[in-house]
Fold this protein.
Amino acid sequence: MQRILFILCFIICVIATKAQTIEGNNDCTYSKEIIIPFNYLDNATTKIKHHLNQTVFYSYRDQFSYWYKVIVKEDDTLKFKVSAINDSDEYAVYIYQYNEKDFCEKVYYKKLKSVKPSFFIGNTSKENDPYDLKERAFAAKKGNTYYISVLNTSLNNCGHNFYLINDKDTLRVKALHLPCKRDIVHLSVKEISVKSPQKKTRYYYS
């Protein structure tokens, strides 16, 4: 009997450890990487150029939160905003600034807090409203890395539009979650898009 209990405890521990590892990889470990400026030149020889209109798909790791990792090579002022593709979806947005390699571990164990409203440029009390959909602007410093988490807060999740804007260009990422449980018939095979009214996005700060 003791042997059976020992084996059961061992199996449970293995499953729990495995689940924790998988959960830890669900989020920022596989962030979508974006380099600023969009046409950054590495050693003046290798040109890195983002396609400014992109369509991506959620993976099984992105069921709850889709992450963007913004690596800044030159000082810049950036603006960003997020909108829901489907009007039944709602999202919360968390922003972090952290330059070390253990960011995901820090976030997973809640040792790192998101930025405060004062982090953004031109804030007023009204603009600090987490339900405000106005563009958020911040001064991106060379050498810094910024993480933006788009967290799904509704039962269904069809995806979102993410816009990152500097003085010259706008990067638009359409992140699609398939299957979409609602309005899937509106997906265009040609454009791979969902057309619907925009939903308010919640911005959360510490």
